[in-house]
Amino acid sequence: MSDSIQERYLVGYALAAKKQHSFIQPSLIEHSKQRGIDLVKLDPTKSLVEQGKLDCIIHKLYDVDWKENLHKFREKCPGVPVIDSPEAIERLHNRVSMLEVITQLRFPVSDSERFGVPEQVVVMDSSVLSGGGALGELKFPVIAKPLDADGSAKSHKMFLIYDQEGMKILKAPIVLQEFVNHGGVIFKVYVVGDHVKCVKRRSLPDISEEKIGTSKGSLPFSQISNLTAQEDKNKEYGEDRSLETVEMPPSSFLTDLAKAMRESMGLNLFNFDVIRDARDANRYLIIDINYFPGYAKMPSYEPVLTEFFWDMVTKKKHV
Ligand SMILES: O=P(O)(O)O[C@@H]1[C@@H](OP(=O)(O)O)[C@H](OP(=O)(O)O)[C@H](O)[C@H](OP(=O)(O)O)[C@H]1OP(=O)(O)O
Ligand SMILES: Nc1ncnc2c1ncn2[C@@H]1O[C@H](COP(=O)(O)OP(=O)(O)O)[C@@H](O)[C@H]1O
Ligand SMILES: [Mg+2]
Ligand SMILES: [Mg+2]
Questions:
Q1: Binding of Mg(2+) 1: at which residues (predicted)?
Q2: Assuming Cys at both sites, which of 56, 78, 107, 232 could form a disulfide with 260, CB separation 3.0 to 4.6 Å?
Q3: Neighbours of 261 (CB within 10 A)
Q4: Quick check: 233 and 240 in contact, CB under 8 A?
Q5: Is the pLDDT assigned to residue 317 strictly greater than 80?
Q6: Using CA atoms in the order 199, 83, 153, 125, what is the torsion angle rounded to 10 degrees?
Q7: Are strands 195-202 and 142-146 parallel, antiparallel or unpaired?
Q8: How far apart are CA 201 and CA 287, in angstroms?
Q9: What separation in Å is there between the alpha carbon of 224 and the centre of ligand 1?
């Protein structure tokens, strides 16, 4: 079929400048174009109905004006898929409601693999942090994570806390989460509609009982899974740890889990971080869920995203 008679579709995107730069790559534009899909940048400040005959919208913007703009568009054009609904995305902006998704899943667990989330408590009042009772049943070491997961640099600033003294650096609201030894590797599971792809990434190294006994205070870190091997080495988080020999979790387990999460959250574009308990190889813990992550780092990102756009514009089912 020649280009002139092939039906063409319009996918509008509304993304922050950094995200646009990493996601809307020439290779993706070209791939989609070949499939009859044109990617068009939206002006989030202007009415969406006046920006072309859109067949689908993708977005990662959180301000009130944008949500209002989207809301009006959804009312006027209810048949056009908006990927995803702001209300569904919102749940991932808080590290407590994010992991409640997992604890509420009614997913038939396989005979071997089990899943859950690490024990955690949320502290809303900074004065509680200086007293001894903030941890409840949890034991040191813990990871302290900002409660808000709103995409700001601040929301990724974490601390490994070894003792009560280390708690002094923290400010509420904060989530204190049990540190689980997991062999220094996380599995990042990317979800794009029906498509599920798992990759391995570096993580914090295990902490031995001996180290727990001798370490004091706190250790700050941020976005450790995005460090290169060299940066990882320089930061002295451990030896240069090769990921190649690490066994992947069974893919059917991850696919089933991703499907259950997708349906439960009503989201199509997200990834989640999974660790495997070093003391129990069949126990997997979900520690983080991210809306619209860095897909350009996912293998085959162009064909996978193009296929997803195709499914959306041709009105195949989406959650
Ligand atoms: O920028 P990238 O490509 O590293 O992507 C970030 C993600 O990295 P990942 O793809 O999981 O390795 C990153 O994932 P992590 O939180 O590091 O697990 C987030 O999704 C981040 O978005 P936000 O800051 O939480 O809104 C993502 O940032 P944005 O691209 O959305 O700003
Ligand atoms: N409970 C935990 N036990 C051990 N390591 C953890 C735990 N939670 C987080 N980490 C490590 O900290 C990193 C950052 O935590 P994460 O919750 O994924 O925050 P972010 O949203 O910034 O990616 C993880 O990729 C992992 O390396
Ligand atoms: Mg993470
Ligand atoms: Mg995250």
A1: 273, 288
A2: 107
A3: 20
A4: yes
A5: no
A6: -110
A7: unpaired
A8: 14
A9: 11
Query: Residue type at 222?
Result: S
Of the pLDDT bands very low, low, confident and very high (cuts 50, 70, 90), residue 241 is: low
Name residue, tokens 């049943």. Answer: 137
ipTM of the complex: 0.93
> What are the residues whose beta carbons fall under 8 Å from the beta carbon of 91, sequence distance 6 or more?
97, 98, 101, 265
- Pairwise CA distance, residues 4 & 160, whole Å: 59
Query: What's the CA gap between 292 and 273, in Å, rounded?
Result: 13
- Cβ of 160 less than 6 Å from ligand 2: no
d(CA 175, CA 143): 8
**In this structure, are residues 48 and 70 in contact, taking their beta carbons and an 8 Å threshold?**
yes
Sheet hosting strand 82-83, strand order edge to edge: 37-41, 9-15, 56-60, 82-83
pTM to 2 decimals? 0.94
Cβ neighbour number for residue 128 with a 10 Å cutoff: 15
Please identify which residue in the block is written with the tokens 């900002």. Answer: 146
Dihedral of the CA atoms 247, 251, 252, 253 (nearest 10)? 60
State the Cα–Cα distance between residues 144 and 41, nearest whole angstrom. 37
Structure tokens at 239: 């030896």
Q: Which residues are annotated as a binding site?
A: 19, 60, 95, 145, 156, 177-188, 203, 273, 288, 290, 294
CA separation for the pair 308, 319 (Å, rounded): 12
Nearest alpha carbon to residue 103 among 290, 286, 253, 291: 286
Residue 294: both structure tokens together: 């860095």
Terminal alpha carbon distance of the chain: 32
Name residue, tokens 């997708």.
Answer: 262
Ligand 4 centroid vs 27 CA: distance in angstroms?
Answer: 26
